[in-house]
Amino acid sequence: MPVLVVGAVVLVVVAILAGVLLYGAFSDRAAGGGRHTLSHPVGLRPVAAVYDGPCRSGDLAGGGECYRLGGGMTLAAVDDISVDSGSNGDSVVTLSLRSADRKRFTHLTERLSAQSPPHNRLAIVVRGRVVSAPAVVQTITGGQVQIAGNYTEDEAQRLVDRITG
């Protein structure tokens, strides 16, 4: 089952408890403040169009679909990333952005949350592939992000592994 399920994945704001545990998603921990260096840059790019393959030049593949993406932002590190329990008994990926990235991410999600599908989706790009493209349902402030989509714990951990490289 592809990690990416159109309409099933939702990006929502969550309150992360101070004691969020890291489930071994990173092998390197940068000095200071719990910051985690990602093994590869992670792009966060708005989705302009989604279509079935084959992908055209300049568009990216992911989850059996092709994506035309707009400009966004790139993450080199995050404060934390983990698999947590969702409100429906499913598993979710919880991500805490560095303070340096929060304002830009807030502006990006503010713009996307006002759009209709597929323009409200945010592609997570690693090594030139879209690993997930959840819908942004509201502006995300404070840098606390949750990626939900009826994931099993194993599926959520695979997404963490893809994001962290």
Explained architecture:
The protein has 165 residues and is of the alpha+beta class. The protein has one domain (10-18, 28-164): Gyrase A, domain 2 (2-Layer Sandwich). The chain has helices at residues 99-113, 153-164; strands spanning 10-13, 36-52, 60-62, 65-69, 73-78, 80-85, 91-96, 122-126, 129-132, 135-136, 144-151. It is globular, with a radius of gyration of 15 Å. Mean pLDDT is 81; it is low at 1-33.
Structural class: alpha+beta
CATH class: Alpha Beta
Estimate the global geometry from the Cα principal axes.
Answer: globular
State the end-to-end distance.
Answer: 20 Å
The total tally of domains equals 1
Question: Could you tell me the number of beta strands?
Answer: 11
Number of helices: 2
Uncertain spans, ≥5 residues at pLDDT below 50? 1-33
Task: Sketch the major β-sheet.
Answer: 6 strands, antiparallel
* Residue share in helix: 10-25%
CATH topology: Gyrase A, domain 2
Average pLDDT, rounded to a whole number, is 81
Quaternary status: single chain
Give the CATH architecture. 2-Layer Sandwich
Approximately how much beta-strand content do the residues carry? Answer: 35-45%
Q: What is the element string, with H for helices and E for strands?
A: EEEEEEEHEEEEH
Rg on CA atoms, Å: 15 Å
Topology (SSEs and partners):
Layout: E1 10-13, E2 36-52, E3 60-62, E4 65-69, E5 73-78, E6 80-85, E7 91-96, H1 99-113, E8 122-126, E9 129-132, E10 135-136, E11 144-151, H2 153-164
Parallel strand pairs: 1-10
Antiparallel strand pairs: 1-11, 2-4, 2-5, 2-8, 3-4, 6-7, 7-11, 8-9
